[in-house]
Specification:
With 157 residues, the protein is an alpha+beta fold. The protein has four helices and six strands. Strands 1, 2, 3, 4, 5 and 6 form a six-stranded antiparallel β-sheet that branches. α1 packs across α3.
Length: 157
Amino acid sequence: MSHLHRPESLPISLHAAYERISGHGAWSAALASDGNHCADLADDDIPAELLKACVLWMREWSAEAAKSSVPMRVMKVGADVFIRTVTHNYTGRISMVLPDALLLVDAAWIACSGRFHNALKDGDLDEVEPIPGPVEIMRGAIIDVTPWEHPLPREQA
């Protein structure tokens, strides 16, 4: 992974594209597509071609991070997880690890986990609100990420 750079070391123009996409919460849509939708975020300062290059770079970075021999702990692509943030709890499958966010699919907001030990041990959750599409969880808000060893909840409870 040494040939890939973290966003803070990007050339200034690519860094500006990264910030533009991040600022619009557009990573999930950008990474799920070929990047062509980035034209909506383009202007004279940051052309669509640069935004698309940023999306392609992030795909490569995420793919390389997923294959890394360095343990990624629980936060690895494909892992089913229970995430506690400063305000909410979520379950889901990590589909992308971004420098500033985790992208979850098959996600649910867990309004009330009940007893935390029981939730993790048995998969028992008191209140579940499934999220119909992907959700980005900002890494700065994450308290902890725990493996979820049960079927992901997809029904309201």
